# Entry
Amino acid sequence: MDEVEVVVAHSERATLRVGDVFLKVDADRARLDVEVEMMALAPVPTPQVLWRKPPVLAIAAVPGATLGRLGGPSTGSPAAWAAAGAAIRKLHDAPLPSRLGRAGQSVTALAAELDAECASLVTNGVLPADLVARNRQVAEAALRPWTPAFTHGDLQIAHVFVDGDEVTGVIDWSEAGRGDALYDLATFTLGHEERLADLLAGYGTDVDLDVIRAWWSVRSLLVVRWLTEHGFDPFAPGCEVDVLRSRM
# Structure
């Protein structure tokens, strides 16, 4: 072990890498409990839990690499993207967990949160009013009844690892639970709209594309302020603000 790598760190949690071990430090013990529980239930490859001593969870690194990152180029073959889609479908078709996940927010609660966040973005001059208004209009398609599925809840492209055309691991399960399956698909393809068809080749095409596009707007609107306040840059090329601009 030559060094300790800080993978991500902010006021709520931090992830460190030491060799082939990831140490997740979380101020909220419940999040660690949820992560371990959901990984045990998920029917897809997940990291091995090495030990847990709150506020720290130690997990083994998974082999392979991600299919890209938000703000960077998408990588991997169409077959690798299809394999990711098939793994996500397997998760969504699995028996439902008992808890609601991040993607399980009620339509009423989500609309209220979205409206409050949109107002804040405009009032505080974070984003132009016309950009917020257009994306709030697009977001409306996500505010509809949905059939509960076993969702990851934070299925960023950086959270799924593949080796060749095989999914080797899905990480970061603290937001998992019952929720809207299309939220996961939208999160995974955020900023990589051009790879949606490849993903759906493995997942299945029985999805409403307008709802996926709506979730791109919802997720971006809701996280811009949080990212800015926690040391991230949603204004970087290809990131959340560019996703919002692409709806104009």
In short: Strands lie at 4-9, 13-18, 21-26, 49-53, 56-60, 65-66, 148-151, 160-163, 166-170, 177-180.
